[in-house]
């Protein structure tokens, strides 16, 4: 193979690689707004489902200074959703949880009720776990019952007790999640996602509850 032929092949390969990269970036940029909008709509729908008694909600962002701000495009910080009943009374809060499962990330929206300092509902908004096994975290009634009143008491800048998944049938404490037999990895992913989010979000939220109570949804 001559030197000129080799250079031509290398140049062609470089062009194809660059073009492929350009097309991938272009498609990503073109579809990103639609993906983000679909996620926003999914979160909106789920927030109202997961917060008991809520008929409307307000999206807040807690910035790095600990200030509570109404969410706006480009505003960075910790997202939290305050749910209100028909009379405008704060009924609960919602936040996002995320952790790695067996075959991909498991993303959730969970509700926190300040009066009991507990998580009172969880909805999975995205998961790619094995059908029939990992998806039991959505369909198994006994597993879902873990979140009727899961302890998430705040003590200082963290939870008083970490939220953990335990072997099926061995739950003894209100902050433990009774895992599903045959879907332990998915159960642990839910627990890990809730614990990671709650440890970060709830200590920031609790001091701001009075501001949320006075806000209009």
TrEMBL record:
Record-linked InterPro entries: FMN-bd (IPR007329), Ion_transpt_RnfG/RsxG (IPR010209)
Membrane topology according to the record: Single-pass membrane protein
A GO MF label: FMN binding
Predominant location category: membrane
GO biological process: electron transport chain
Its EC number(s): 7.-.-.-
Keywords: Cell inner membrane, Cell membrane, Electron transport, Flavoprotein, FMN, Membrane, Phosphoprotein, Translocase, Transmembrane, Transmembrane helix, Transport
Cellular component aspect of the GO annotation: plasma membrane
Domain annotation FMN-binding: ranges: 101-201
Oligomer status and interactors: The complex is composed of six subunits: RnfA, RnfB, RnfC, RnfD, RnfE and RnfG.
Role: Part of a membrane-bound complex that couples electron transfer with translocation of ions across the membrane.
PANTHER family per record: ION-TRANSLOCATING OXIDOREDUCTASE COMPLEX SUBUNIT G
Recorded family membership: Belongs to the RnfG family.
Name recorded for this polypeptide: Ion-translocating oxidoreductase complex subunit G
Organism: Thiothrix unzii
